[in-house]
Design a protein that fits this description.
9-stranded mixed sheet; 2,3-Dihydroxybiphenyl 1,2-Dioxygenase, domain 1; 367 residues; binds fe (ii) ion; oxidoreductase; 2 domains; 10 helices; alpha+beta; globular; 34% strand
Length: 367
């Protein structure tokens, strides 16, 4: 089939943060990521610093403003720390960009070439939900570490003492919280030729208080998966509404990181001070859950000890766990996911997950 908007995968998740230097330290020490590249005033970047960290194929760029009044400084002032760009690796930037604009996307950066001694990169950008953007990037003719203008940087700390020296190997999916889900599902269908995956969460799956609706769009190869959430009417304030209020509009809610050994990863991250959502004993002791999930790689007792969730569908199963928000505002968080055949997102865990989030909302006084 002719893919109108082929993508190779995620290129980078770009964060705007209030203090990139400290954030780089946090993602190094607590997420086991390796600093590889940097730009800042010393390298000719007058207004910003940027730290590029990797873990397997996952790449984060952390950008911070060094002076007031720049677009980045304003973004952080308005939204707090958060994701500004879900950059996509595409084979043909020009064609992708033109197609996107023809289909109604708003262009932010015309396709252009940036180059240095390591070769050429083609870059363009389109607007997504809220103040989030998608940079479209082709680095196939580039051998440098990241982009022209960046210099090599040494890792901040030694790699984690685990197999492969990393805690996760890829970005699994990136979730957006929006006001109107259907509008953005249609955007990704039209603009990027993405298609809906089977998982659909209606407000029927809500807890007593908090409701949301969710659909997932993905590219043809299923390498890029974007679930989209919309708040639904509940008795109290939905966690999506809370996000929209505190972030100041639509934005990226969570990034799921793929690991082959969620037990080791969770243990290492907890040891480093990362806080995960609590799941009550009742979740694990429920005979219905035990019969539904059947045989999984890790004994249920081990999952229970770490509060790791498990879900099974017709294709297989997955293990997952969610951090608490990792920024000051109750906005951005992470998920760890270990897949065994399942292509889902843990639909069977939504209720348990929402209830855990509601307990946190209650503590914040925002339920
Ligand atoms: Fe997720």
């Amino acid at each position: 089939m002719n893919d109108v908007f082929p993508v190779h995968g995620m290129d980078a998740v770009v964060f705007a943060v209030g203090n990139a230097k400290q954030a780089a330290h946090y993602y190094s020490t607590a997420f086991g990521m390796r600093l590889v590249a940097y730009r800042g005033p010393e390298t000719g970047s007058r207004d910003e610093v940027a730290y590029v960290l990797v873990s397997g194929s996952a790449r984060f760029e952390l950008r911070g403003a060094v002076r007031a009044g720049t677009p980045l400084a304003r973004h952080v002032a308005e939204h707090g720390d958060g994701v500004i760009d879900l950059a996509l690796d595409v084979p043909d930037v020009e064609t992708a960009y033109r197609h996107a604009l023809e289909q109604g996307a708003r262009g932010l950066e015309e396709p252009h070439v940036v180059e240095d001694d390591h070769g050429k990169v083609v870059v363009a950008a389109i607007a997504a939900y809220g103040d989030t953007r998608h940079t479209l990037i082709d680095r196939s003719n580039y051998t440098g570490l990241y982009l022209p203008g960046y210099v090599a940087a040494e890792p901040i700390v030694a790699p984690p003492a685990v197999k492969n020296g990393r805690l996760f190997q890829a970005v699994d999916h990136c979730v957006g919280n929006v006001e109107r889900m259907e509008e953005w599902v249609e955007f990704y269908e039209k603009v990027m030729g993405f298609t809906k995956m089977a998982e659909f969460i209606g407000d029927d799956i809500a807890t007593e208080y908090s409701a949301l609706m969710s659909k997932v769009v993905a590219d043809g190869t299923r390498k890029v998966k974007f679930p989209l959430n919309e708040p639904a009417e509940g008795k109290k304030k939905s966690q999506i509404e809370e996000f929209l209020e505190f972030y100041g509009g639509p934005g990226v809610q969570h990034i799921a990181l793929a690991t082959n050994d969620i037990v080791t990863t969770v243990d290492a991250m907890r040891e480093a001070g990362i806080e995960f959502l609590h799941t009550p004993d009742s979740y694990y002791d429920d005979p219905e859950l035990r019969s539904r999930i059947g045989e999984v790689r890790v004994p249920v007792e081990e999952l229970k000890r770490r509060r790791i969730l498990v879900d099974r569908d017709e294709d297989g199963y997955l293990l997952q766990i969610f951090t608490k928000p990792v920024v000051d505002r109750p906005t951005v968080f992470f998920e760890l996911i270990e897949r065994h055949g399942s292509l889902g997102f843990g639909k069977g865990n939504f209720k348990a997950l929402f209830e855990a989030i509601e307990r946190e909302q209650e503590r914040r006084g925002t339920l």
